[in-house]
Amino acid sequence: MAQLSKRIGKFPGYPLAEIPRRKRELLAKGMDVIDLGAGDADVAPPAVAVRALTEALKDPAMSRYGFQLGLPAFREAVVRYHQRRFGTAFDPMAEVLPLLGSKEGLAHLALATCEPGDVCLVPEPGYQCYIGGAVASGAEARIAPLRPEQDFLVELGELPRDVLRRTRLVYLNYPNNPTAAVAPRDYLERTVAVCREYQIALAYDNPYVEVTFDGYRAPSIFEIDGAREIALEFHSASKTFSMTGWRLGWVVGNRELIKALTTVKSYHDTGPWLAIQAAGAAVLDHTEELAQETVRLFQTRRDVTL
Ligand SMILES: Cc1ncc(COP(=O)(O)O)c(C=O)c1O
């Protein structure tokens, strides 16, 4: 057998990827399976997305390579959404990047920011691609435990200084999966201040920003002064629009980090399918009303289980 890299043995395993196989086995045995595995809602994608994709399919230009530039209309729709929702302005060409779902962007960012031996801070429990990115880059994935007594917040300022000096990337995710914790504004301010002081890239993973309850409105990290110096914020069409399999996400933020991530991605992929980006552009202009419908449904279900 061909020799494998030492790196491949360092990936800790990906239990969620096992679930579809296990589910198939159980279904084949005739079992009635309720799949609580991946965060994949049983909700149809928005009609506006389906219509836009159907139209885009008729245009042969949509079948070409998108490269990292992708569809300018998608970048512009992203900018309009952030302006409308968070009051933050981005240059569509230099501060936005389309992603094949936010997962690959999150993982690839470690290749753009970490050297072997650097520290990459990874919350646990947390989304597994963070560790995957750290391992691929040769960085040391240092676990930051999320504890109920700290409201599941990672307090960077409490880490030893020598660790902070070696840290090049930190992943944070609020509203959090799986704890459902949210990040108060003063917490975000402290976090941005520490990242600026130690020149640490902050990957703010925000796919659940629209999936909140009881009047709570989740912020963008770019509502915090100074965040643009060190942060990227990752968004996803998967959760807000129930478009998990379409594989569409985007990242906004610091232009040097966007440029570095674009470089890494240029060698790994050629961007999301342009027709999917056309559908993304169409739904983004309706984000708030579409999210409201889904959240109403989730809220009913949540209330039943409480
Ligand atoms: C915390 C978190 N971040 C990112 C993602 C990735 O979403 P996607 O790659 O579908 O955009 C998920 C998916 O479950 C998630 O739970």
Fold topology:
Elements: H1 15-28, H2 47-57, H3 72-86, E1 96-99, H4 102-113, E2 119-124, H5 129-137, E3 140-145, H6 161-166, E4 167-172, H7 185-198, E5 201-205, E6 231-236, H8 237-240, E7 249-253, H9 255-266, H10 274-284, H11 287-305
Parallel strand pairs: 2-3, 2-4, 4-5, 5-6
Antiparallel strand pairs: 1-7, 6-7
Helix pairs in contact: 2-10, 3-10, 4-5, 4-9
Bound molecules: pyridoxal-5'-phosphate.
Pyridoxal-5'-phosphate binds at residues 39, 101-103, 127, 173, 177, 205, 207, 236, 238, 244, 249.
Write up what this structure looks like.
Helix 2 (47-57) packs antiparallel against helix 10 (274-284), helix 3 (72-86) runs parallel beside helix 10 and helix 4 packs across helix 9 (255-266). The protein has helices at residues 15-28, 47-57, 72-86, 102-113, 129-137, 161-166, 185-198, 237-240, 255-266, 274-284, 287-305; strands spanning 96-99, 119-124, 140-145, 167-172, 201-205, 231-236, 249-253. The chain has eleven helices and seven strands. Helix 5 (129-137) links the parallel strand 2 (119-124) and strand 3 (140-145). The mean pLDDT is 96. The chain has one domain (39-305): 3-Layer(aba) Sandwich (Aspartate Aminotransferase, domain 2). Strands 1-7-6-5-4-2-3 form a seven-stranded mixed β-sheet, sandwiched between helices. It has 306 residues and is α/β, with parallel strands linked by helices. It binds pyridoxal-5'-phosphate. Residues 39, 101-103, 127, 173, 177, 205, 207, 236, 238, 244, 249 line the site of pyridoxal-5'-phosphate.
